[in-house]
Design goal:
alpha/beta; OB fold (Dihydrolipoamide Acetyltransferase, E2P); 2 domains; 5-stranded mixed β-barrel
Length: 154
């Protein structure tokens, strides 16, 4: 009986050591919590002239959050919209006389969503993408985009 107890104790000790070694090996590869998105203001994106700021360059490809207003969209359900720093009363796509503000961000949504009131602030999150690009579907030229965007009322 004593021999059996010693064998069980030795086996348990070996299993514990193996388990700890295994966990030590696996721990660096374990899923890490998602990095919190950096909050970005429209002014944070630009340096002198039309150059991107150092902060925008550093955050390119990273998750960010921005607060702004959804510009009036073309239709009630959208898969993209324009985020502006101030509310816009008219859809610049629809009115040739309306001028786009210079500080806008194209938001490519994660999936189709209902358009929101243009005068209520929203908080948008997505992956910051910078550089001049023309959207193939719409022909819309943008310099700053949030990819995989999601939004909620601020």
């Amino acid at each position: 009986m004593e021999r059996l107890l010693k064998t069980l104790h030795d086996t348990r000790t070996q299993l514990t050591r193996r388990l700890l070694l295994g966990l030590a090996f696996v721990a660096p590869f374990a899923a890490r919590p998602a990095r919190a998105a950096d909050r970005v203001k429209f002014a944070d994106l630009w340096a002198e002239g039309a150059e991107f700021s150092d902060r925008a360059k550093k955050l390119a490809g990273q998750p960010v959050e921005m607060r702004g207003y959804m510009a009036p969209p073309l239709k009630p359900e959208v898969d993209f919209f324009v985020l502006a720093s101030e509310p816009l009363a008219t859809c610049p796509f629809c009115d040739e006389g309306a001028a786009w503000p210079e500080d806008i961000v194209l938001v490519m949504l994660h999936g189709p969503r209902s358009a929101q009131a243009y005068n209520r602030p929203i908080l948008v999150s997505g992956i910051l993408d910078i550089g001049t690009q023309t959207d193939e579907k719409t022909g819309f030229v943008s310099r700053v985009r949030l990819q995989d965007g999601k939004f909620k009322y601020a």
